[in-house]
Design goal:
Blueprint (H helix, E strand, L loop, with lengths): L5 H14 L3 E6 L3 E6 L4 H5 L4 H10 L2 E6 L4 H9 L6 E6 L2 E5 L2 H9 L4 H11 L5 E4 L1
Parallel strand pairs: 2-3, 5-6
Antiparallel strand pairs: 1-2, 4-5
Length: 136
């Protein structure tokens, strides 16, 4: 279970005040913040020409990523890995999701060094869906 600290609550409050978008959750990485916003709120959260993201990057002194939540785990995972686009995201079985893409560059970006990015994606997705993610 994810623990919400007062620091995270502060990030969420400031984010909502600046963007006027509703936040479902916030995840803190080493040098980044990932805000999960409700469906239909991503455009509002990002702002015209990305103005809100730029302002938040500056205020938090961290890289801010905004991800739109979706009840469909396949679409949600697709939103999480944006701007990288997978060729295919599909269920292998009812508990395993496969992310497929072309080329070594795709795998490098989605997996990250020592599979760090994939672990972060898995951690976030596990809070909403009971699935395991694999990259091919």
């Amino acid at each position: 279970m994810k623990v919400i600290t007062t620091e995270i609550i502060g990030y969420i409050n400031l984010f909502e005040r600046i963007t006027r978008a509703r936040v479902k959750n916030c995840y803190q990485g080493h040098d980044s913040l990932i805000f999960i916003v409700y469906e239909g709120e991503a455009g509002k959260a990002i702002g015209k020409k990305g103005d809100n993201v730029k302002r938040l990057n500056h205020l938090f002194k961290k890289r801010v990523k905004i991800v739109e939540y979706n009840n469909d785990p396949l679409k949600f995972i697709g939103n999480l890995i944006l701007p990288i686009r997978a060729e295919n995201i599909r269920f292998e079985d009812e508990k395993t999701i496969i992310i497929e893409g072309k080329g070594i560059k795709f795998k490098q970006v989605v997996l990250g060094p020592e599979r760090k990015n994939l672990k972060e994606i898995q951690n976030i997705v596990s809070n909403y869906f009971d699935v395991e993610i694999k990259v091919k």
